[in-house]
Write a structure and sequence with these properties.
Length: 275
């Protein structure tokens, strides 16, 4: 049974690789996906946690941190803000030990594109309002079919249902080891970065699924990196032939992008020089 996803094989592979890298490098923090649709890539991220994160029953990524070593909170810890609702399991503000996986989506599809979504290279998309509408129930059912219902119940896997500009900033996510953005459009990408980037740990991984496919997404990434003075190289998903056989045209044209958050990135808002 394959995961229910729109995401191409290569980008699924890259998603799994980056999730593994976050664990193997003991990067502190949760996994977050903004734009989960029917759950495919969230399932992949959860399966990596199940295999290698001790708080999910896994064996430990690097073998050096011990149980829960890379988590972000102690058992029973309360944290501020609201979960945004829509999740199963424990009440708002309660978080279990260890890492969490946060899954954010309107489940009503994308918002309306804006001017910045237009133009771009030939073949790039602008999107349309309501694209990829699904339902919270479909998402949960798919997770359960892949044996992940227990994590929803335990509150390790939390759903943030609603528009990103309403759910992300106030979500009680503390630190992030792997941030996977898949909201397609300019506004969705910009809002996700603005709300969550500062919570990404040094060494954490930021992945943008739609970088090569959607004009507005690519624009939002370039603007954000420029505004923040981010110099960490923007990696464009490599051409795959050596790794797996796939018909190359779409895989390479719609490449994802990712970068590592460097420890010494400028703080934001920028510190004022003294005097
Ligand atoms: C391409 S799909 C995600 C694909 C998914 N990761 C998979 O594995 O198939 C994009 C998703 O982002 C959501 N989305 C886009 N912009 C959003 C926004 N501003 N607020 C909430 N959800 C948004 C849509 O509802 C849609 O489910």
């Amino acid at each position: 049974m394959d995961v229910p996803t729109l995401v191409t094989k290569l980008r699924r592979l890259l998603t799994a690789q980056l999730a593994l890298a976050a664990l193997f490098n003991d990067i502190p923090g949760d996994f977050v996906e903004a734009g989960v649709f029917t759950g495919g890539t969230s399932i992949i991220m959860a399966k990596v946690l199940e295999r290698y994160d001790p708080s999910w029953g896994g064996t430990g990524g690097s073998g050096t941190s011990g149980p829960g070593g890379s988590g972000t909170a102690h058992a029973g810890q309360r944290s501020g803000g609201s979960s945004g609702g829509g999740g199963a399991g424990p009440p708002d503000g309660w978080r279990p030990a260890g890492r969490m996986l946060w899954a954010a989506d309107s489940f009503e599809g994308t918002p309306a594109p804006v001017e910045q979504d237009n133009g771009g290279a030939a073949g790039m998309r602008s999107g349309f309002q309501g694209e990829y509408a699904t339902s919270l129930e479909t998402f949960k059912t798919n997770l359960k079919e892949f044996g992940l219902g227990q994590h929803l119940e335990a509150g390790r896997l939390r759903i943030l249902k609603g528009w990103f500009n309403e759910t992300l900033a106030g979500a009680p996510v503390q630190r992030i080891a792997f941030l996977r953005l898949d909201g397609d459009l300019y506004v969705s990408t910009r809002e996700s970065l603005e709300a969550l980037y500062d919570r990404v740990s040094p060494g954490g991984l930021v992945y943008i699924d739609d970088y090569g496919a959607y004009t507005g997404c690519q624009r939002a990434v370039h603007e954000f990196r420029q505004r923040r003075g981010i110099r960490s190289p923007l990696n464009i998903q490599p051409v795959p032939e050596q790794v797996m056989f796939v018909p190359p045209a779409e895989e390479t044209r719609w490449a994802a992008a990712w970068w590592v958050k460097e420890p010494h990135e400028p703080t934001w808002p920028p510190l004022r020089p003294p005097g």
